[in-house]
Amino acid sequence: MMNIAIIVLLAVLYIAAAVLGLRYYTHMLQLSSYQFQGYFRSLRNAITNHGPIYAALMPYIPKPAKKKFVVTDRVKRLFVTYGLIFALFLIIGGVCAKSSAGKTVLLILLGVYIVLLSLVVALANFINKPVEKRISNWFIDDAKRILKEHEGLRIIGITGSFGKTSVKYYLTTLLSEKYRVLMTPESFNTPMGIVRTIREKMQPTHEIFVCEMGARHLHDIKEITDIVHPDDGILTSIGYQHLETFHSLENIVSTKYELLDAVEEKAADKVGEHLKFVNGDNEIIRANMKYKDAITYGLSEGNDFRATDIKVTSSGTTFTVTAPDGESGEFNTKLVGRHNVENIMGAIAAAYKMGVPMNKLKMGVRRIQSVPHRLELVKHGAVSILDDAYNSNPNGAKVALETLDLFEGKVKILVTPGMVELGEKEDEYNKAFGEQAAKVCDYIILVGEANTKAIKKGAEEAGFSSDKLFVKNSLNEATKLMYELEAGKEKVILLENDLPDNYT
Predict the structure, then answer these.
(1) Which helix (H) or strand (E) holds 164?
(2) For residues 256 and 249, what is the distance between their CA atoms, to the nearest angstrom?
(3) In the prediction, which pLDDT does 250 show?
């Protein structure tokens, strides 16, 4: 009886360890959008940042997740496949058990399964790919059907290396002055996120669909445009982002222009008006201006829609807008910074060309709210938080520091884990970020030693005092310190980027 009890206990412990491990690695896979490159990078990050022994124990160390694990139907199918792989191990072990060394072989196989759980997850994901592809295609076809049956719906695509989410929110606010508008929520900018929005949110009363389109690989935008077939397109920016997966700036340019290519294809049908908008202030867009009929917007002279007389304070921004037909007006927004004016200009240009009059646009701009985690200003008494935690990039980081610099007479603190997915240029851009921060900040708090070495080096080489530069292991530790520094004084804290769990 004692032997049976011990065997049952060991079996329960084994199953519990397997399930916990599989849950952890499946979470990492989910955070990597079920892509092998991102998943294996997360495994390498764990080993690099914590060492192989700690990395192996991470599935069993309690730790609150920044982004919760979601048990979707896809996750359930993965666990079924995990079970089938485990059953295969048991069958092989059962066959071997007939030999003299059978029990030893079975124990080795069980040990191999538990030790290689991370690879079991990858294998199951590979096995399930054909099934997932068929399921995705069914959802995509259903979304296409919904759009086809929605006569008169105008679809506006928005893409860019940065600024696309902000322009999406701003444009939806402005268009809502005249139309019933549906937009892709939050960061639902992948093919399946967009399909889900269409299938779950689209109503017959909607007149405009504002669709944010994200990309990490070559031709990702075309995959989306082949689903929604946009009538109009807005290209907010092109910059050095996701170089790890794009591999070159040329690939980024080509992919971002796939949106405007799709609009051009729609225009070839000569049915209705199809507009292309581009940020004329973006150097890379200017150097790769593919369509002469594209409507430009920005702050620089020569743009079709131009903002001038910009006055920025820590409490808001005023500016004058001039349209191509000569009409102009003064606008006010509670948002801070020239970069916000640039993004608002993209929304104004599109809304104006789609029939929203200038006086209604003025009211709409007053109503524009900060986009969550994108230089969102939150005040807590004497402490102001500039929350720019979502997905930092070199240009965005530079703009964030410029915005922080606007707050004169206040203690300026930067909290950041650095930038990722920049390929071979990652250290170069992080070092430059450190140099820029040294000119603006009173204190710098870096989160995670491994990811922030280049920032630390850049700040120190720029002459930043080592007494005011701190490296903390976690965001919780950094948060505690940022409130302790200069306690009682008025201060502004910039939270620049927040790496997800698969990077930490």
Answers:
(1) helix 164-175
(2) 11
(3) 92
